[in-house]
């Protein structure tokens, strides 16, 4: 059995901050980045992508989770979300369900400021209690 590396939250925040800078947010100017550490120790990143057809935009969390799955990851061990502004953001309802399906109820989701100075965390079960699971 291979050893799974320790979770380095500051490093994940740095990766999510970097991904945030690539966000395609020409309408809202609100850039979000995400980093997902999976069961293999692989980090997948994502950023939000807006679209003029408003409901077709994609959240950073969805992009990062999709990248995890596309690269062969099955389960998120830790998720970090970074956004600008004075308030920390948490995942939208759709991303909460995506996270619940691709992480365990005790997986920690970290929400950080764009500077990385302010950070809060919560378990997936706290983000989406009583979620639908197969």
Word description of this protein:
- 28% of the residues lie in helices and 27% in strands.
- The relative contact order is 0.18.
- It is an alpha+beta fold and 134 residues long.
Q: How many helices? A: 4
Task: List the uncertain runs.
Answer: none
Structural class, judged by helices and strands? alpha+beta
Name the average pLDDT: 93
Strand content: 25-35%
The largest pleated sheet is described as: 5 strands, mixed
Lateral arrangement of strands in the main beta sheet:
2-1-3-4-5
Topology pattern, helix = H, strand = E: HEEHEHEEH
Number of strands: 5
Radius of gyration: 14 Å
User: CA-to-CA gap between the ends?
Assistant: 27 Å
Overall 3D geometry? globular
């Amino acid at each position: 059995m291979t050893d799974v590396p320790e979770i380095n939250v500051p490093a994940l925040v740095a990766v999510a901050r970097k991904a945030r800078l690539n966000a395609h947010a020409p309408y809202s100017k609100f850039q979000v980045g995400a980093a997902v550490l999976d069961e293999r120790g692989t980090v997948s990143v994502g950023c939000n992508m807006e679209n003029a057809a408003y409901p077709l935009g994609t959240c950073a969390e969805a992009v990062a989770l999709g990248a995890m799955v596309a690269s062969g990851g099955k389960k998120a061990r830790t998720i970090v979300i970074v956004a600008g502004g004075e308030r920390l953001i948490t995942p939208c309802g759709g991303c909460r369900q995506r996270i619940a399906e691709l992480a365990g109820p005790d997986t920690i989701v970290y929400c950080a400021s764009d500077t990385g100075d302010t950070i809060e965390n919560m378990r997936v079960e706290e983000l989406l209690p009583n979620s639908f699971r197969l």
